[in-house]
Write a structure and sequence with these properties.
The protein is α+β, with helices and mostly antiparallel strands. It has one domain. Helix content is 27%, strand content 35%. The strands form 2 sheets. It has a 5-stranded antiparallel beta sheet, sandwiched between helices. A two-stranded antiparallel ribbon has the order 1-2. Helix 1 packs across helix 2.
Length: 116
């Protein structure tokens, strides 16, 4: 799926490059159904202040940072949405998500350019 413009998500815009990168990673996952819907689910989840750090190496999981709670967590994602009930807390007391992402680079199949 080619993304050619800026896509709106819940009142903010996400670059087409970010959508495309998330889509491409999810599409590469064996058995990944509807990566376009799953990518939109991730971007909707991160529209309210949660920061998308990247996509995990294992399966369709988004790695996110909550700047209010200073937490990094992974969450499963599917075409029907982000599964917060299965959220896995990876670390607390994280003040610098870029530094955290660099220290845990092996956990990422794709990292958001903001944290590279």
């Amino acid at each position: 799926m080619a993304a050619s413009s800026v896509a709106p998500y819940m009142g903010r815009t996400v670059s087409a490059d970010i959508f495309q990168a998330v889509y491409d990673r999810l599409a590469a996952i064996e058995g990944g159904a509807h990566p376009d819907l799953a990518a939109r689910s991730i971007l909707r989840h991160t529209a309210g202040g949660i920061q998308l750090l990247g996509i995990a190496t294992e399966g369709a999981r988004a790695i996110c940072y909550d700047p209010h709670l200073h937490q990094v967590y992974a969450v499963d994602v599917s075409p029907i949405g982000v599964h917060l009930a299965d959220r896995e807390l990876w670390e607390t007391n994280v003040d610098d998500p870029t530094d955290w992402a660099a220290q845990h680079a092996g956990r990422f199949a794709w990292r958001h350019p903001r944290v590279r």
